[in-house]
Each structure stands twice: as structure tokens, then as C-alpha cells.
Amino acid sequence: MRGRHAAADLRSNGFVALAAGMILPLVVIGAVYGGYQVMSTTGCSGTVRLSVAASPEIAPAIKDAAARWIKTEPRVDNECVAVDVVAVGASEVAAAIAGEHGVNINTLGQADGKTQVPHVWVPDSSIWLQRMRAAREDLVPLAAPSLARSPIVLAVPEPTAKSLGWLENKLTWKQVLQQIVGDTRITAGIVDPNRDAVGISTMVAMASVRDQFGPEGDALTVGAIKALTSGKSEQQAGLMARFPRDADPRTLSTAVTLAPLSEQALHAYNATGPAVPLVAVYPDPAPIALDYPFAAMPRLSPNRAAAAEQFRAVLSGPEFRNLLSTHQLRANDGTVGTGMTLSPSAASSSAVTPVPDPKVINTALQMWIEITQPSRMLAVVDVSAAMKQTVASAGGLSKQQIAVQAALGGLDMFPESWAVGLWSFSTGHQQLVPIGPLNAQRDQLRGALGGLKPNPKGGSGLYDTVFAAYQTVQQGWDSTRGNSVVVITGGRNNDPSGMSLDTLVSSLKKAENKDQPVQIIIIGVGSEVNQGEMQKIVDATGGAVFIAQDPSKIGDIFMKALALDDGR
Questions:
Q1: How far apart, in whole angstroms, are the C-alpha atoms of residue 351 and residue 286?
Q2: Which value, to the nearest 10 degrees, does the dihedral of the CA atoms of residues 5, 10, 13, 16 take?
Q3: Average pLDDT by consecutive 10-residue portion of the chain (568 residues)?
Q4: In this protein, which residues make up the domain named VWFA (predicted)?
Q5: Per-residue pLDDT tens over the stretch 31-80
Q6: What is the DSSP string of 420-450?
């Protein structure tokens, strides 16, 4: 009987029924968007509902601005405006938009099936809009004004920044890359650029260095990207969790000690009071800053488009600047609101790098993909008589011993995902370890390298060996990996019964399959190696030649050569 009376009371209470009718849709909306909902309701002929998907760090400021706006009872043609705000990562929205239109965004992956396409999208960067336009021009609007700004910085734990002398210095990218490649105090990390605008911005900046400094910039960039890969995370939260939790030297040696982040993310991290705060290093030239474009989706109804334009106008001016500052974001002009202060180095970093066209972005992403893909490499080491020569600058070690030391050092750097094989050669060649997964044969490779000894009377069948190695790698070509031959040699080909240089070059050109590239990298040990002859070999297939005129310096040369082993 109690339930029957309760039901009767509900039916007789018009106010409660009206309230239930209003609350239920809002609960459903909140469940669908997982965000914030505000609306005006007084004396309207209907409702224009505007869904906004914004990157998580700016979504609360947009929600607060919407709540204040709705109190003014905005309308479009006497229809009340409702604003639903959801905090969602830009990559999820991009994938949802692409999926809705049956478009593939290179390297982005499929939509998660949960994220809805909004009426207004505020990603963290206009880079996302450029990637969408590259796939199909009408997926996003041509005009998308910026709402906020957050520069890209290099986040470094304070103790590491002090030891590097980076607390106040403004560094060039070349200086940064040199440190990443050569300084053991730095363990680099990054969020996967395929799904993160900060990562993409970093790749664009590195690509510009690669172009400016020729072979040196090339080696530095590739080496730095490979170092970043070792600390790669799929999400920003995963990367942040790898920063050191205390300043103990052992902890610092195993934690991430350099990573590109937005200025906002770094300030938000430090606001939690970590035991080891992060220092922001502002590299020069500045990477593309996050700019939070307001993108009203194409094909909105006239009333919804009008509501979107009204709301965009709200998200500007001093009031919104102050809302942004509470979430560690600058205004779109780089200024800050009440409660946010900038360090001298941050305040002096006012240069704005424009968002590049889609081709530049895609080229930078392709660079990341090519360099970070697993390698499939056949290492070929000279054991001819030329390798027994001793080197005074290396304490009397032989070329062979120096080469083996460098190769062992490189082997220790190779990630488990690589596949590596080993040959030795004199007049003929010998397979010591077949190409196979490094995680299963690292010890076998180390043992085989350590056992190499020069043949005191051995000649050098370099040309025949190079061609045989090229064919071997080509025959097992793997589309998921970079495929290469790395040759370490101490002298010239001197096998009278073998092929000539011209025959080798023509044979390589004939065997080459541009759809299945195999590059040849030659590392020469000592002045006996002829640079011109080696260059003709690598020009036939793609690759590079490195000559260590002083064999004691082969370690540095070897690292540069491996940095270029990206399979292109």
C-alpha cells in the first residue's frame, strides 16, 4: 500500500513531475558526455544544445565560462542555449571524426567507439586540425581562432638541471640534442608523437635542426630520437609517472630526466608538491606552442552555428584569461591572468612558431616512424690482415680489437626489438650468427664478436662480401623493420679473383628493389680505407660512409653510424 500511495503522490505533484522530467535528461546527457552541462531555461521556445569536446587541461576553464554565460540567459531566435562540456583527449576526438566520415588519419588508429563527435572541438593544438585537413579538407573548419596558449618546454628534474647548468640558460636545439645523445645524466622520454601534439611539435623542431646542420644534424637528430624512444609512453600520465620521486642519485639514474611537455603540464605537476620539482628549459627556436583552437564543426544547423559563435566570443578577454590562469594556461596572446606568474626565462620566450602546413607535419611524423621502427641488421666485420695493425693512439690495440670494442658497445645499446646477425670476412665470408631476434641471441652475438681475430695472411674480399650480405638481407626483407647491412672494414678490396668495384656497383643497382629498400652503412677503420670507393657502393643503394682516420676514435664514429641506421 505504501508504494501505491507514493505513486499517487508523485502523479498529483506537478512540480515533482516537472523536476523529474528536467533532471532525467540532464543525467543522461552527463552520462553520455562524461563532462559538464549548463543551460538557460526561462521563457524559451526551445533549446539549442551545444556539445563541446575540449582537451582535459582547458575543459574546466571552458566549463566555468559556460556556467557564467548561461546565467545571462543567452538565446538564438528565442531558443535557450545549453552547453555540454566534455574533457577528452584530442586524439580520441580526431579518431571519432575520421571514423564518422570513413577517413583514415595516418598513424592515428581507429576510434574507440565511445567518444562522440562534438559540435565544437577545442583540441590542444591546431596541429590536429592540419592533420585532419590533410586527410580531407572539409572535416574541420578553415577558421579556428586560438583560445589559449602553452609553450612546449623541456622538463628536467631540478637536480639534473643544476648539474647540467640549465637553470637559467637558453639552449639551442643543437645543444640539447648533443646532450641527449652524449650525456649519461640524461634519460629522455616522450609521449608517442602519433597521438600527442607535444610529441609532434618536438619532431617538427628536430626535423628543422636535421635540415640545418647536414650530416651532423642528421646524426644528432636520429640519435636523439632513438634515445627518446627508450622512454616513450603512450599517454602523458605514463610519462609523468617516470620522473624521479626523490633526488637520490640512483633514482635519478633510472628515471626520466628530460622530456618535452607543455608549460601547463609542467606547472600542474609542480603544483602537486613533488619531492623533485621539474625545471622548464625553453629551447631556441621555440617549438610550436599548444594553441587550443575553437573549431565549430562544419555542417552545423544555423541556430547551433550562431550559438557556437556567441560562445566563442565569451571565451576571450580578461575574465577568461583569469580562468585560464587558474589552470596554468596563458591567454591566446601569451599573457597571463591573475594568479599565474612566469619565470624570467619563460617571460623572455615570447617568440611564436607558426603551425606548419600538413606536409611538414606529416614529414616529421614519418621521420619518427622510420627512425623508431625496429631494425633488422646484418653486421659484417673485416678479419683480414689489415685489421692486425696496431694503433699507437689506442695504447697499442689492434684495429680488430678497437673495432670489436666499438661493436660490443653498440650491441649493448640495441633494443630487444631488433633483429641482428653477424658475419666475418677475409677473402671469403663466414656466417657467425644468423639474423635473428636480439632478445634470444644477444649473448651469442657478444661471444662471437669477442672471438674475432685477424687472419695474418688473409686478403680482403670486401666487394664480394658486400654483395652477398646485401642479397641475404634483401631475401629476408621485413616490411615492419628497417633493413640494413653494416660493414666494418680496415682496408681495401684485394681479392684478384673477386668482382671489381664497377661490377659490384652495377650488381647492386640491378638487384635493388625500391619497394624493399636495404641500405648499406660502411665504417672504415684507418686511412687505408678509400672514401671515394666506399661512397660509390653506398650511393648505389642508399646508406652512408664513415671513416675513422684515427682508429681510436671509432667508438664515436660507430655511434653516429648506428644513429643513421633507420632503414631508409
A1: 7
A2: 150
A3: 36 35 36 48 83 98 96 93 96 93 81 90 97 92 95 94 85 89 90 94 87 71 85 90 89 89 95 94 90 96 96 94 95 88 62 83 85 87 92 83 84 81 95 94 94 91 96 92 90 91 96 91 87 92 82 64 53
A4: 376-562
A5: 333 455 555 556 788 999 999 999 999 999 999 999 999 999 999 999 99
A6: EEEEEESSSEEEEEEEEEHHHHHHHHHHHHH
**For residue 285, cis peptide bond before it (omega within 30 degrees of 0):** yes
State how beta strands 429-437 and 419-425 pair.
antiparallel
Other Cβ atoms within 10 Å of 567 Cβ, number: 20
* Contact indicator for 407, 435 with CB cutoff of 8 Å: no
The DSSP line for 482-538 is EEEEEEEESS----TTS--HHHHHHHHHHH--TTS--EEEEEEESTTS-HHHHHHHH
Dist CA 327 CA 343 (whole Å): 17
How high is the pLDDT of residue 124? 97
d(CA 111, CA 113): 6
Q: Are 335 and 157 in contact (CB under 8 A)?
A: no
Nearest to 234 by CA among 200, 263, 191: 191
CA dist 271 and 340 (Å) reads: 12
CA separation for the pair 492, 109 (Å, rounded) = 49
Residue among 319, 288, 322, 293 nearest 53 (CA): 293
Give the HSE-up count for residue 399: Cα atoms under 13 Å, Cβ half-sphere. Answer: 28
pLDDT at 4: 37
Phi, psi of 472 (to 5 degrees): -65, -45
Report the amino acid identity of residue 82: A
**CA dist list (Å): 129 to 108, 111, 137:** 13, 16, 10
101/103 Cα distance (integer angstroms): 5
**Residue 375 to residues 58, 312, 336, 438, 488: CA-CA distances in angstroms?**
40, 48, 46, 10, 18
Terminal CA-CA length for the chain: 80
User: How many angstroms separate the CA atoms of 331 and 335, rounded?
Assistant: 5
Q: What are phi and psi of 526, to 5 degrees?
A: 100, 170
Mean residue pLDDT of the chain comes to: 85
Other C-beta atoms lying within 10 Å of the C-beta of residue 253: 12
382 CA to centre of own chain: 37
Treating both helix axes as pointing N-terminal to C-terminal, what angle do 358-372 and 214-229 enclose, rounded to 10 degrees?
70
Q: Is the dihedral of CA 166, 169, 175, 176 positive or negative?
A: positive
